Amino acid sequence: MTEYLAEGPRVGIRPFALTDAAEFTARARESGRLHRPWLFPPTDAAAFEAYARLLVEDPAKHGFLVCERAAGTDGAAGTDGAIAGFININNVVLGGFRSGALGYGAFAHAAGRGLMSEGLGLVVRHAFGTLGLHRLEINVQPGNAGSIALARRAGFRLEGFSPDFLFIDGAWRDHQRWALTASG
């Protein structure tokens, strides 16, 4: 049985582990059409190891896997623990700021099923509770309708626009800034 940091009715969240490489990279390869041109998760073992090590070892990062939970003893056989997606809190700053920047991605088999919405809610509660953060920010390319919809469903508010914000897929990309604070 998988141990989760937090659980909802259909998903649990847990930290990344180096042993997740095979499943994570297979799901990332299967999800290339869903992710492009927005996201480029690791698709081979070496890239995954470098990525996961940063999330595990860097105190300014927290990586979470959103995993499916079987719906009771009689339902969803074989899905318990399957990785549905990932949510990372990057650039964590403590002190008077107590903030972090979220990045996330669903895998194709889980897209459109509400699993990431549930997982994001668990991560937000964990960030504002256990991690003691006050503010979370999501930076989204304006054309990424799915990511914007997820941010809205989680209660994030649009705060602004940042031209040439991140270097993705060979170019500097504009982003919208969405944020949520512990006080709402």
Summarize the structure.
By secondary structure, this protein is an alpha+beta fold. The chain has helices at residues 21-30, 32-35, 45-57, 115-128, 145-153; strands at 6-7, 11-15, 62-68, 83-93, 99-106, 135-140, 157-168, 171-181.
Protein model, in words:
The chain has 184 residues and is α+β, with helices and mostly antiparallel strands. The chain has one domain (6-181): Aminopeptidase. Helix content is 27%, strand content 34%. The chain is built from five helices and eight strands, in the order ββαααβββαβαββ. The protein has helices spanning 21-30, 32-35, 45-57, 115-128, 145-153, and strands at 6-7, 11-15, 62-68, 83-93, 99-106, 135-140, 157-168, 171-181. An eight-stranded mixed β-sheet has the order 1-2-3-4-5-6-8-7, sandwiched between helices. Helix 4 (115-128) links the parallel strand 5 and strand 6 (135-140). The radius of gyration is 16 Å and the shape is globular. The termini are far apart.
Mean pLDDT: 92
Return the CATH architecture.
3-Layer(aba) Sandwich
Instruction: Give the helix/strand class.
Output: alpha+beta
Largest sheet: 8 strands, mixed
Give the terminus-to-terminus CA distance: 34 Å
Task: Summarize the helix and strand pattern as letters.
Answer: EEHHHEEEHEHEE
Instruction: Using the coordinates above, name the CATH class.
Output: Alpha Beta
Question: Helix content range of the residues, please?
Answer: 25-40%
Task: Determine Rg (CA atoms, Å).
Answer: 16 Å
- Looking at the structure, what is the overall shape? globular
Tell me the strand order in the biggest sheet.
1-2-3-4-5-6-8-7
- β-sheet strand percentage: 25-35%
CATH fold-type name: Aminopeptidase
Instruction: Give the strand tally.
Output: 8
